[in-house]
Write a structure and sequence with these properties.
The structure holds 2 protein chains of 2 kinds.
Chain A: H1 17-51, H2 57-99, H3 101-123, H4 125-128, H5 132-157, H6 182-209, H7 214-244, H8 247-256, H9 258-279, H10 283-309, H11 325-354
Helix pairs in contact in A: 1-2, 1-5, 1-6, 1-10, 2-3, 2-5, 3-5, 5-6, 6-7, 6-10, 7-9, 8-9, 9-10
Chain B: H1 15-47, H2 51-86, H3 88-121, H4 128-157, H5 162-165, H6 168-172, H7 177-200, H8 206-236, H9 240-249, H10 254-275, H11 282-308, E1 312-314, E2 318-319, H12 325-334, H13 336-339, H14 353-364, H15 378-382, H16 387-396, H17 411-425, E3 454-460, E4 465-466, E5 474-475, E6 481-489, E7 495-496, E8 501-507, H18 520-528, E9 544-546, E10 548-550, E11 555-561, E12 577-584, E13 590-597, E14 600-601, H19 607-610, E15 614-616, E16 620-622, H20 624-638, H21 642-647, E17 652-653, H22 674-683, H23 691-697, H24 712-715, H25 720-724, H26 727-740, H27 745-750, H28 776-779, H29 814-818, H30 838-844, H31 857-860
Parallel strand pairs in B: 4-14, 5-17
Antiparallel strand pairs in B: 1-2, 3-6, 6-7, 6-11, 8-9, 8-12, 10-11, 12-13, 15-16
Helix pairs in contact in B: 1-2, 1-4, 1-7, 1-11, 2-3, 3-4, 4-7, 7-8, 7-11, 8-10, 9-11, 10-11, 14-17, 16-17, 22-26
Classes of the chains: A mainly alpha, B alpha+beta.
């Protein structure tokens, strides 16, 4: 059976695909940063909880306070790219989701449990004592599971030739386990979370350190350590991931495409810079390098997706039935929303000046 | 069909979306009203300078945060996940149409999160004004979120001009946008009160607790009246077709509307009770009971809303099974499997039929139906069907009961689906029946052409009397055959004898006591208002008796003979013989004797679709299971209570509502006549089947035990449709007449019927049953051999022009010499080939019409050379054996 005959016909889009593509990548960067901070700090808190050292307690406590936020923003920032990916690649992602229906839906249930575990870890941090480890463990394990299911779906959507499995299993229990990039891809995301999680802690430490609490110095130091070592590991996993990609795709980044090659170079340079600043415990430059690298990696990832789907589909195939006014209204709303968030933060931080 | 289908089976039928959506919607509406509740309650605390109220607000905000931020937002994403798994095609339409609507909602979602976090974490930490502003930003953001999503949800119900313009704004500000929005806003306020109870009942100070519970009760009660008004406005904004669905056309909705209507006052009373001071902890329990009632209320509303869209997901654009309306014609033309993407078999063969059927089942059925699951289980709904019945059900699906989409695809695909459902899901199979009929003796009385002075000609007035042996449930037609007879004194100028003679009739042994084999007499009084002695028919005639003279036609008649096709030993014989004797009234001397078949059958194929088995011997009759299903279906479609009445011992006579032109029973004005109703309804389920459709119900099937088509026309290859048209034509001719008579219900039955013998419905000549029938002379023009064997749309104008009422030029009724309709000489009969030819054999020694082949001597005693009876009557019989 020709897999291309299975690909559902896409619906038309209301604006040029470039707009949607831009919004997709932009919001994905935001989502992935939040997700990394969430998962990374979660893992760090889990490790610290298991180690059970007294001096690690403030760090775990700090993470417990932040987890509900990071989960909330991860979910929230996930909504937008999930929306835009459906507009651009709906015919692929709906299909792969149906193929793994039960697992895909399971995410919702697991997420609720993980979320409430995080809240318990936060609200009952002191009351729970060492039992708190259970909650952070549940939370982290479930988040890792969700990440795995996402990786499975995102790889499955890129490989229509594997969709034929539907004809022997249409019960929604297909996981893309035979995919050679599955594990390195998954680890690449998990390890990135440790990088950004460490960075996030260091940034929180940096901001709070101004208030003069010595715990925050330790937090910066610990955060930057996670950041730097995880970046090292990440580079290795990155190569593994690259090697696992089909040859024509990886060659795009090794000379076949000048844009791809340039991005790959930027990616490596970004990681190298991050390492340099990381080991020197320079938080803000590290953050800059890390964010730069994340953006480059998101672009590389996008090129990889485009290359995977090239035999079947290209975004320019999408039919446009132009209706720009809703998008303009959305842009206005977004800008006003950002302004309003600034205003709210100002209102909320005002107390500090007064108290 | 564009997307693969998740084979959920047990967990299908909308269970997942129901679980996800109902809880989400409940909490999500609370997230809207609750925001306003927080900020207004905080203002109340500030106004009253009450730290207790402020502390309550803070605690409530924590509960609110945990419930809305986690549960509501994740289940909200969950709905998205779920609908994209269950109906990716429809989700895709929503996403592509409203991408920036969703994107704007996302912005307000961010604002909600930021505002709520800040509101909760800065409680008592920043100045009140700033804190209230955060609260207001949350409340307004949540409200706008609701308004945005409302545009998209109401769009699915009433897409309005979007169907033509495809404009975002037309879809968003659709016809039910405003009422739906106001309704949802008031619901969210009511829910704020309900959820307020949950925290208020845990306040420790009893007086303050009462205060706050009362305060929450006001939140529930004050918007309530507006909620009811807006609900009404919302309903009024629906097009009639949607309203009809909600008001009962969709059987799925009926229990939900009952729940919705029952819960509404309970919720209000619950709110009132909460406002009353009661001691102890009762209110704690009450608060949770009200919470559950609220969930039931919200759940039933959303469910009604969802189900009212049937048979669409997006009204007027995409069917419930994700097939776009615009694709329907193409699918029917080229085949479903050929146009679907996610199928293995594009061509159906005997070998892959069941597998292909499963693929069609997945793509067309399981979006709405579970298999053995809790919701909309397909198994009990299809349990009764044979493959034929299932196929017919699919044939008619979505036509009269339009809450389901029609089946889309070819005949072969429909059969594949039917076979899959019956053979695989139910593990049954249709076993083709072959009548095993024993030839019965048909004694022929002697006749001496030279000596005998009289001949006696007798016939049944109709070719087959179909009776329903289901009197405990309903009576379609009661027993009652008519037999007519002529006594002719032979001579050069023969004479019809009507005076001084007595004609009697008597059924063959074994058939004298029909009351022992059918329950008609147990219920006759209820049906006809008069007590009938056993074995006596409605006209007072029994199974033997004297024939009466019909002066007008000079013919002896015994009408309404209650003969049934069951012998005393419960054997089926649809052709019992009657002995007719003519006696001299004075001397009592027998002048002539003959025998005639009174054809009567109970072989009505209702069970083919309505389930159950044959009642008698596995060959005929309407069983209790079949009969009760017929009533259940009638009740479901026409909103009657026939089944309940029958179960209470009050069965109905069909023609007490549906006029039977063949009887003088009073019927209900405005209701379709019996023929139009029955043929019109069933034609929708039996299209494109030619004569198969007739055989499905009438006792004419070649595999049956009656095979009522016995005449020469059948032998030479004509069938029902030759004279009556296909079922669609036949039904339409009846329905057009009813429509012209001003009966509105004809339209519903006609909507999907396409004539086969004429180009359009406009070409159909209306006819009344039992009056306007095909005329023999349509083909046999001037009694000549026909040039065509097809006639449709040419009807007799009145009852006296019917074959059974008509006479030849010499005043002899056509049937006397040619026998009854559907058994004209020479006839064949599976119970013995001469059973229907007794008189030709008796008087002529052949099976041909009386006096055919110039055998005028039968009556005239000499040869004749004038065609006195009708033109061409002296021609030789063509179809000799």
């Amino acid at each position: 059976m020709d897999p291309s005959s299975l690909i559902p016909a896409p619906d038309s889009i209301p604006v040029h695909w470039g707009w949607l593509h831009f919004l997709f990548l932009l919001t994905f960067v935001l989502h992935v940063l939040c997700m990394n901070a969430m998962l990374g700090t979660g893992i760090i808190a889990l490790v610290k909880s298991f180690k059970g050292k007294r001096q690690d307690l403030p760090l775990a406590k700090e993470i417990s306070l932040k987890l509900p936020y990071t989960i909330a923003f991860t979910v929230n920032m996930g909504v937008a790219p999930l929306l835009f990916i459906q507009v651009l690649y709906g015919n692929f992602i709906y299909t792969s989701s149906v193929l793994m229906g039960w697992y895909w839906l399971l995410i919702i249930g697991i997420l609720i449990i993980a979320y409430y575990s995080a809240y318990l870890f936060d609200f009952k941090f002191d009351a729970l004592g060492s039992a708190r480890s259970i909650f952070i463990a549940v939370c982290v394990i479930l988040m890792l599971l969700i990440a795995f299911l996402f990786t499975s779906n995102i790889t499955l959507m890129l490989t229509p030739e594997k969709w034929i499995r539907y004809f022997s299993n249409s019960g929604g229990t297909i996981l893309n386990l035979s995919e050679p990039t599955l594990i390195p891809r998954y680890l690449h995301f998990v390890c990135a979370s440790l990088v950004i999680g460490g960075l996030f802690l260091a940034i929180v430490g940096k901001i709070k350190a101004k208030e003069g609490n010595h715990h925050y110095e330790a937090m910066i130091s610990s955060g930057m350590k996670w950041f730097s070592y995880a970046t090292l590991v990440q580079i290795i996993i990155g190569f593994w991931f690259a090697m696992a990609l089909p040859n024509p795709i990886i060659l795009l980044f090794l000379g076949d495409s000048s844009l791809g090659t340039l991005l790959f170079f930027f990616g490596l340079a970004g990681a190298g810079t991050a390492l340099y600043f990381g080991f020197n415990k320079r938080v803000w430059p590290s953050a800059g390098a890390a964010i730069f690298t994340v953006v480059v990696m998101v672009l590389i990832r996008d090129m990889v997706r485009t290359a995977y789907l090239k035999p079947y589909f290209s975004l320019s195939d999408l039919k446009v039935e132009p209706q720009y006014s809703p998008m303009i209204l959305f842009m206005v709303t977004l800008i006003a929303g950002i302004g309003l968030i600034g205003y709210m933060l100002k209102l909320a931080t005002k107390r500090k000046q007064e108290s | 069909m564009n997307y693969p289908v998740w084979e959920l089976y047990y967990a299908g039928g909308g269970l997942l979306i129901a679980l996800m959506a109902v809880v989400h919607v409940y909490v999500a509406h609370f997230a809207v009203g609750g925001g306003l509740f927080l900020v207004l309650t905080e203002m109340k605390g500030l106004r009253e300078n009450s730290t207790a109220v402020l502390e309550y607000t803070r605690k409530h905000s924590k509960f609110f945060l945990l419930l809305t931020m986690v549960f509501s937002s994740v289940t909200g994403v969950g709905i998205w996940f779920t609908i994209s798994l269950l109906s990716p095609a429809a989700t895709s339409v929503l996403i592509h149409t409203f991408v920036f609507g969703f994107a704007m909602e996302w912005v307000f979602f961010i604002l909600e999160i930021v505002a709520l976090f800040l509101y909760f974490y800065t409680f008592n930490k920043i100045d009140h004004k700033a804190h209230l502003i955060l609260g207001w930003i949350y409340a307004v953001s949540a409200l706008i979120s609701l308004i945005l999503i409302n545009g998209i949800i109401s769009f699915m119900q009433t897409p309005g001009d979007w169907l033509v313009t495809r404009s975002f704004w037309d879809g968003f500000f659709n016809p039910s946008f405003w009422p739906s929005m106001f309704f949802r806003i008031t619901i969210s306020l009511v829910l704020a009160g309900i959820f307020g109870f949950i925290t208020a009942v845990f306040i420790k100070d009893p007086d303050f607790k009462e205060n706050m519970v009362c305060y929450c009760a006001r939140w529930l009660l004050l918007p309530f009246i507006f909620m009811v008004l807006f609900a009404w406005w919302y309903f009024a904004a629906f097009p009639d077709s949607l309203k009809a669905m909600i008001l009962g056309r969709s059987p799925e909705i009926v229990p939900l509307t009952k729940i919705f209507a029952a819960v509404l006052p309970v919720l209000f009373i619950g709110g009132l009770l909460m406002a009353i001071r009661v001691p102890g902890n009762i209110k704690k329990y009450m608060a949770f009971v009200i919470l559950v009632i609220g969930l039931v209320y919200m759940g039933s509303f959303e469910w009604i809303r969802e189900a009212s869209r049937r048979p669409f997901l997006i009204y007027g654009h995409m069917y419930s099974n994700s097939i776009k309306i615009e694709d329907e014609a193409n699918i029917n033309k080229h085949g479903f499997l050929k146009t679907a993407k996610w199928v293995k078999h594009q061509e159906i063969s005997d070998a892959n039929m069941l597998h292909a059927g499963r693929e069609i089942f997945n793509l067309q059925c399981i979006t709405c139906h579970s298999v053995g699951g809790a919701l909309n289980d397909i198994l009990p709904l299809t349990k009764k069907f044979t493959v034929f019945g299932m196929d017919s059900q699919l044939n008619g699906q979505g036509k009269i009961n339009d809450y389901m989409p029609k089946f889309m695809g070819t005949r072969m695909e429909r059969l594949a689906l039917s076979r899959y459902m019956v053979e695989k899901l139910h593990g049954k199979a249709d076993i083709p029946t072959k009548a095993a009929v024993k030839e019965l003796p048909a004694p022929i009385d002697p006749f001496d052409e030279k000596k005998d002075e009289y001949i006696l000609l007798a016939w049944s007035n109709i070719g087959m009397r179909c009776i329903s042996d289901s009197a405990s449930w309903f009576i379609l037609t009661p027993p009652g055959n008519d037999i007519s007879a002529y006594l002719i004194r032979r001579g050069e100028t023969p004479e019809m004898v009507t005076q001084g003679v007595k004609l009697t009739y008597k059924v063959e042994p074994g058939f004298e006591y029909p009351s022992k084999t059918v329950k008609f007499w147990n219920h006759a009084q209820k049906f006809f208002g008069k007590k009938l002695p056993p074995d006596i028919g409605l006209t007072g005639n029994g199974l033997k008796g004297k024939m009466k003279l019909d002066d007008e036609n000079q013919v002896f008649v015994a009408d309404g003979i209650p003969v049934v096709p069951y012998s005393a030993d419960n054997r089926y014989n649809p052709y019992p013989l009657f002995t007719i004797e003519a006696m001299d009234q004075n001397s009592g001397k027998r002048l002539a004797r003959t025998r005639v078949v009174a054809s009567v059958s109970t072989e009505m194929g209702c069970k083919n679709c309505h389930g159950g088995k044959w009642r008698m011997e596995g060959v005929t009759g309407i069983s209790d299971e079949t009969a009760s299903d017929i009533l259940a279906m009638h009740d479901k479609i026409s909103k009657t209570e026939l089944l309940k009445m029958a179960q209470q011992g009050k069965p109905y006579l069909c023609k007490s509502c549906h006029l039977d032109a063949n009887s003088d029973t009073k019927s209900k004005p405005g209701v379709l006549n019996l023929s139009a109703a029955i043929h019109g309804f069933h034609a929708n389920y039996l299209t494109d089947r030619d004569v198969e459709a007739c055989h499905a119900c009438h006792p004419s099937s070649a595999g049956g035990h009656t095979q009522c088509l016995r005449g020469i026309h059948h032998e030479i290859g004509l069938d029902c449709t030759s004279c009556h048209g296909n079922l669609e034509d036949h039904a339409l001719s009846l329905l057009v007449a009813e429509q012209k008579a001003g009966k509105k219900s004809a339209k519903r039955l006609m909507k999907h019927l396409v004539p086969t013998r004429v180009d359009s419905i406009g070409g159909i000549k209306p006819r009344n049953p039992w009056i306007n029938q095909p005329d023999c002379l349509n083909c046999h023009i001037d009694f000549n051999p026909p040039e065509t064997d097809q006639t449709f749309n040419q009807w007799t104008k009145s009852k006296d022009q019917l074959y059974r009422s008509r006479t030849g030029d010499a005043g002899i009724m056509c049937q006397a010499c040619h026998s009854t309709t559907h058994a004209v000489y020479p006839a064949t009969n599976i119970y013995g080939n001469n059973r229907d030819n007794i008189q030709p054999f008796q008087y002529q020694g052949n099976p041909y019409p009386i006096a055919s082949n110039k055998n005028c001597k039968v009556c005239h005693t000499i040869d004749m050379d004038e065609e006195l009876h009708h033109p061409n009557s002296l021609a030789m019989f063509r179809n000799v054996r």
